[in-house]
Amino acid sequence: MAGCGCGCSGCGGCIVYDEPQDGSGQTGCTCAGPFTQVSTLNLGATVISKLNPIANCLRDLKTKLGARNYEVRLVHTQWVGDDNGQGEEVVISDVPLLPTPKVADLNALDIQVLVAGAHELGVLQVTEINPTLGEDFLRGWMNGEPPPPGVNFYWEIQFFRGLGQGSDRRRFNLSAVPTQDTTAFQWRATITRAQGDRTRAGFPR
Description:
Layout: E1 2-3, E2 14-17, E3 28-31, H1 47-64, E4 70-80, E5 88-96, E6 102-103, E7 110-114, E8 117-121, E9 123-129, H2 135-139, E10 151-162, E11 165-174, E12 179-181, E13 186-193
């Protein structure tokens, strides 16, 4: 190997390998650093983080224009009784996702007709979620831990026709851990249709 003298900005020195080092069969210049370790970086001061508020304002404008006529909410409920599913279910947390994220068309849901009635099935994609939110919050974790026994967490979508005139609330469960797309200023989430919708007024059935 030999020095290449590439003069890269901030480079701690480059070396030229005469023999392949990674099994690729390629030789050439490999920068030896120094590189940035993300755990030592003030992420709140990066260019990406400073642009997050602009992305949020642009998405909120879509709500003000009426393009996003729905609310996405993160809900925690708790059963008051001996066992989960027994007794009375009460809402302990009901938080809207703001600015309103983008929800895929509900036409992606299928209708299953049973003796007890029709049920919606399927998976939806939720994108353009506020990038400043944390993964624990989106997963419904409490104090850095999953919800304790007896506490349920789910996502909820409700469309509106007019001021305060909400349609049916639809309940969804997270299908996977949300993923963050920093260069698109967003979180992405996949949610699956679930049963147990609240009433339009927000009361557990």
